[in-house]
Structures are given as structure tokens and as C-alpha cells.
Amino acid sequence: MTQQTPLRRVALTLAATGIPVLPLRAGKAPFGNCRTCVDNACGGRPNMKAAGPCHCAGVCHAWAAATTDPHVLTSPQWTAAWRRAVCVAYHPGAAGLTVVDLDDAAAVAWARETLPATRTVPTTRGEHWIYRGTMASTNAVRPGVDLKSSMSYARYLGPGTGTLAALPDAVRALAVKEPPTVRRAPQTLTVTLRSGRGECPHRTPAYLERGIAMAEQRITEARSAVHATVYRTFLAVLSTHGRCGCLTETHTARLFTAAQAKGESPRHCTEAWTNALTTLGL
Fold first, then answer.
1. Residues forming beta bridges with residue 154, ordered by sequence position
2. Which of 13, 107, 133, 228 could pair with 167 as two cysteines, CB 3.0-4.6 Å apart?
3. Contact call for residues 93 and 133 (beta carbons, < 8 A)
4. Three-class secondary structure of residue 43 per DSSP
């Protein structure tokens, strides 16, 4: 029997738990397509939306090569790849997961202040925060933060610590791009506050106060892409507090003031707020 490499042993263990895996070569990159599949000459996987190997025997098509099939993982072609591999990767979306890839200490500090606790895994420079749930993968949603879920791969760096939490709206909101500007908005700080649709779940004013303060800080600390940061912050605030009637004009004025201090005009603030309301269906 072929001797197991340490990385392949890890891969087989993960695959047995239902996590599709693949090897990564030097540079933390997937292996290139084989001659049959080079430049997707084989046609690739249909729509490239499912995890699993190409119909050829090679380790092809990056994240789409990820598999749980032990026969594939131990095939001669994959055995050769494991010998050259430097680490194991997995397809989070196919495992029902989303990885918030925090690339530096500043990104980790932001996550600890902003996101609910979940399973965390140390990386070379930061951390992976892993949530239960899937979404579209998006890079550079804010400085030092990438989202890896469907049609993407993440390095396996160990089991991590903590309990998996459900994917929060605050993470989903990071991947939402601002829709076309709504030009009907007035150029003042007056905005429409929709009435609540039920009993407030927040129980204490302190929860809302902390959320508004964190939103102000997020806008204030933005070093680039200020307009996008303002919109995503508004979206995050409304996704949490926009349905129960908690928000007042005082709260929105605080957010608008923080945005204008970063150079946003009153019109842009109002348009971003209106677009966020529309996106969330409020």
C-alpha cells in the first residue's frame, strides 16, 4: 500500500467529516490544470458551482477540485500532488461554511469589536473566523478582510477554538455592493425612519448605543473607500436595528455627522441610507 503523506492523512480525516479538500502547492496556490484541462479546454465543471474533481484524473480547476472521495484523494495523480503540496485547503461553501479571513492585527481588532464570537483559527498574520452558513465569496470587503465561502478555497490550519456561530447579517452586509444612487433623496440630514414591525428584541438601550458607537468608529477609522464604508455601515446598522423602531433621528444624525467628517456630503449620506433601506426591504 502506498505510504501516506502527513498532508494526505489530514485531508482524508477532513473528507471523512464531509469537508471537501484539495492540496495547495508552494505559494498557497492550487495546482494548475492538467494538459487535458489547460485553459479549460475540457469545458470545466458545469457552471463551476459544485465541489468535486474534474472528470479527468488530475487536480484541476482550483476550488472545484475539492472532494471528499477517498478514492480520488488516494489516486496516483493526487498522490503525486500530495507529495509536492505544502498545505491542505478546503472549499468552505461546499462544507456549509463561510470564512472571514482577517489578514492582520487591525482586521482582527475590528472583528472582535464588530462580529459575534465564533470558531477562530490563528493564521500567519491574523485569524480565520468561521461561521455556519454560505454566501458569495468576496475579497477586500474592507482593509485586511476577505470572505471565503462558495467558489473559493481556504487553507486548513487546524480545528481552531470556540463554537461555530450562525453566519450573521453583519458579514453578509460586507459583500453587498451599493446599488445605483437614488437621486430622489433631499440634500439634508432628514431621513425616513420606518416604523417598527414588532417588539424590540434588544431589551436595553445599551445594546443600541453600543451599536451606534461602533458604527461611528468604523466610519471614522476608514482610511480608504469611505463612501463604500459608509454604505456598508448603514446597512449593518439597519440590518440589526431597522425593523423594530429603535432608531431615532438622533441616531441617524450621529452616523451622518461621522460620515460628513470623513468628507461625505449630506446628499451622499441620505442616498446611502435610502439605498440601504431599499436593499433590506425596509
1. 90
2. 133
3. no
4. coil
Radius of gyration of the chain (CA): 22
What is the β-pairing status of strands 127-132 and 165-166? parallel
Q: Are 23 and 11 in contact (CB under 8 A)?
A: yes
Looking at the DSSP bridge assignments, the partners of residue 97 are: 132
Give the C-alpha separation, 189 to 5, whole Å.
Answer: 63
**Residue 31 belongs to what H/E stretch?**
none
Residue type at 179? P
* Predicted confidence (pLDDT) at residue 47 exceeds the cutoff of 70: no
Cell of 69: 472521495
C-alpha closest to that of 78 among 95, 54, 94: 54
| DSSP letter assigned to residue 32 | P
Alpha-carbon distance of 152 to 147, in angstroms, equals 9
Exposed e or buried b per residue across 113-127, where buried means at least 16 C-beta atoms within 10 angstroms of its C-beta: ebbeebbbbebeebb
Whether 185 has a pLDDT exceeding 70, the answer reads: no
Which distant-in-sequence residues (6+ apart) come within 8 Å of 59 by Cβ?
22, 23, 30, 31, 34, 53, 65, 77, 78, 81
Q: Per this entry, what is the length of the chain?
A: 282
Q: Whole-prediction pTM value?
A: 0.64
Q: Which three cell numbers mark 184?
A: 430622489
Q: 187-212: b or e for each residue (b if 16 or more CB lie within 10 Å)?
A: eeeebebeeeeeeeeeeeeeebeebb
pLDDT at residue 273, rounded to an integer: 87
Q: What is the pLDDT of residue 146?
A: 93
CB 273 within 8 A of CB 252: yes
Report the C-alpha gap between 81 and 75 in whole angstroms. Answer: 10
DSSP 7: H
